[in-house]
Amino acid sequence: MVLSQIPLTHQVYEKVAYLLTNLEHPRTESEWENSFALKMFLFQFVNLNSSTFYIAFFLGSALLFHKGNQNIYMGVIMVLKQIWNNFMELGYPLLQNWWSRRKMKRAGEQNNSKEQLPQWDRDWNLQPMNAHGLVDEYLEMVLQFGFTTIFVAAFPLAPLLALLNNIIEIRLDAYKFVTQWRRPMPARATDIGIWHGVLEGIGVVAVITNAFVIAITSDYIPRFVYAFKYGPCVDKGYRHEKCLRGYLNNSLSVFDMGELKNGSYHTRYCRYRDYRAPPWSPEPYEFTLQFWHVLAARLAFIIVFEHLVFGIKTFIAHMIPDMPKDLCDRMRREKYLMQEMVYEAELEHLQKERKKNGKRYHHEWP
User: Fold this and answer.
1) What are phi and psi of 233, to 5 degrees?
2) Do the beta carbons of residue 217 and residue 57 sit within 8 Å?
3) Would you list the domain boundaries of the chain?
4) Dihedral sign, CA of 343, 344, 349, 355?
5) Are the CB atoms for 21 and 32 separated by under 8 Å?
6) Phi, psi (deg, nearest 5) at residue 260
7) 91: Cβ contacts below 8 Å, ≥ 6 apart
8) Distance from C-alpha of 6 to C-alpha of 343, rounded to nearest angstrom
9) What are the DSSP calls for 101-121, one per residue?
């Protein structure tokens, strides 16, 4: 259901993005492309990752004892989506070009023409490039980057699948641009435009999401709290092998499944994963103190984790700037020399004008 919904809504979102972008009336073509690309990314990001967020957070906690199912679901979504994208990029143009060649061959047989079309005519009969250029190519890579980084804690195989897909994608794109598509019109670009900001935003979302995945859906925090607060090693020093004894029984609460039969009550109990008071306590099924300790530890872990990662990122960005210092110095020197040349040219021109008019002139700026 999810996999069929993703490609079907792609066309709808594309038309909506066109409409909204044209309603904005951007001043330049680059502004139009940036606005359209941002809208397409937001639509496709929600379209692709809404089900993945559900699997990673809600379905993942429901299938706590079957973590393999969670990886299978996310792997199927990633693999089948890449297969569909590759088919639409290469398989669909192949079929269209085959049909075009077939019609041209039939027309030539009817006209009894055995002359072979020149190369430029054959190139013209290839499929035209999309009207919005490389937006689809950027969008595919950015969505893959988001899927790989945002859910890497819930689906560790995502980077490997992305690497294999990119190895195949390089060759498929090369074959597509050379043999199946018309040559695109060249256009100058100073950078990748809005996509740089999109990648920065994905990085921030990835750090926060992985912090929540580790803190909420994994057993790391409950184990940590049990070992230091409720386990057998409290006030005795932490030793991992012995301090987690009894953790499983401690993490399971009791639920009364008894029923009344023949005038007598038959008691039956089941265990479930939670931190709630037993049915025989004064406040049955209320959250215990351990639940609030675990919740506080999870929130603290999220804050510490994202601050630590962002701090390391900022430190690395400061240590490794986007542009080396010597290159910045050379660029500033070139700018200074350019200003000096303009200054000298203006001064020389003004001196010639004054000399022509018979006025006095100096070697200084008037």
Assistant:
1) -100, 15
2) yes
3) 1-103+122-182+195-217, 221-234+246-319
4) positive
5) yes
6) -95, 120
7) none
8) 60
9) HHHHHHHHHHTT--PPPPHHH
Q: Is the dihedral of CA 89, 95, 98, 104 positive or negative?
A: negative
> CA dihedral defined by 70, 159, 87, 140, rounded to 10 degrees?
110
- Locus of tokens 């960005």: 317
DSSP 188: -
Q: Which residue has the higher pLDDT, 2 or 346?
A: 346
Nearest Cα to 310, choosing from 210, 215, 221? 210
Provide the β-strand partners of residue 265.
260
Tokens of 254: 């009791």
Question: Which among 44, 59, 17, 63 has a CA at the least distance from the CA of 147?
Answer: 44
Q: Given this model, what pLDDT does residue 64 score?
A: 41
Q: What is the pLDDT of residues 159-169, one digit of tens each?
A: 888 888 888 88
pTM greater than 0.85: no
For residue 247, CA distances in Å to 28, 240, 290 come to: 62, 12, 12
Cα angle, residue 70 at apex, residues 147 and 84 outer, rounded to 5°? 50
Digit-coded pLDDT (tens) for 94-123: 777 777 767 666 665 555 555 566 666 677
What CA–CA distances, in Å, run from 313 to 66, 151, 205, 210, 211? 34, 19, 14, 15, 15
pLDDT tens-place string over residues 38-52? 888 888 888 777 777
pLDDT of residue 60: 52
With beta carbons less than 8 A apart as the criterion, state whether 150 and 213 touch.
no
